Amino acid sequence: MTGAMHLVLVIEDDAAIRGVLRALLESEGFRVAEAGGAVRGLLDARAQRPDLLLVDLGLPDGDGVTVIRRLREWSPVPILVLSARTSEPQKLAAFEAGADDYVTKPFSPPELLARVRAALRRGAQGSQSGHEIALGDTRIDVSRRHARNAAGEIHLTPLEYRVLECLNRQAGLIVTQRQLLKEVWGPNHLEDSRGLRVCIKNLRSKLEPQPQRPVYIVTEPGLGYRLRLNE
Ligand code: CA
User: In this model, does residue 4 exceed pLDDT 60?
Assistant: First the structure.
């Protein structure tokens, strides 16, 4: 009953994939609604008010990215993209449109469920997250600007705290490079990816057990970063 009867709307034209998703999600206690196309999906999202959407990017009667953009005009509902491995630019467009995360087809069931739960947590927390972050034995209190591990206090700069805060707001999910630049550096610095890279590098050197092989602040190539918290 981990799903606590959350309703998941699957917008996907491939009936076989919808069936697999339904079986998987129902086995975890979720309720599932299915739509085979973009138009139907948008109508169902309005009528059924799902707690989360899984949206395929390639739909017969429209583009998944457009579906996401239309949804975001009125709903903050968590949206996960179902994408083929080959559609990197499309994936990025989906994030710009407001997707929260993606699952690559063919997907691994545990990974899909983990992403679904992370997205639902984000939905439930809204903007009131941001107390303590736990990364291994490191504890970071972003509101009090305080970080420590077993070895003692860790000094983080205000900029580093703000990047962490932004990643933590969507913990477990992807935060795009553009989103980080916009929120931390401001809308006039969307091209300043070097500053972001340096900041991430510094955060890793302070917080990761092996900064060269990060396990907490991970890179999503071509998209952005993901904060992995303790399970
Ligand atoms: Ca498709």
Answer: no
Q: How many Å lie between the centroid of ligand 1 and the Cα of residue 59?
A: 5
Q: Report yes or no: 87 and 112 within 8 Å, Cβ to Cβ.
A: no
Q: Pick the more confident residue, 198 or 127.
A: 198
Q: Which amino acid is at 46?
A: R
Distance 21 CA to ligand 1 centre (A): 14
**pLDDT at residue 35 tops 90:** yes
Any idea where the domains of the chain sit in the sequence?
3-120, 126-227
Q: 126-227: which CATH topology?
A: Arc Repressor Mutant, subunit A (1.10.10)
pLDDT tens for residues 100-133? 998 988 899 998 999 999 899 876 765 445 578 9
Neighbours of 138 (CB within 10 A): 19
- Ligand 1 mean position, distance from CA 14 (Å): 6
**pLDDT at position 171:** 87
CA of 76 to the centre of ligand 1 (A): 24
Select from 87, 27, 29 the least CA-distant residue to 55: 87
User: 3-120: which CATH topology?
Assistant: Rossmann fold (3.40.50)
Which of 152, 165, 151, 175 is CA-nearest to residue 203?
165
Q: Tell how far the Cα of 43 is from the centroid of ligand 1, in angstroms.
A: 18
* Dist. CA 12 → ligand 1 center (Å): 6
Q: Which residues surround ligand 1, an ion (CB under 5 A)?
A: 13, 56, 58
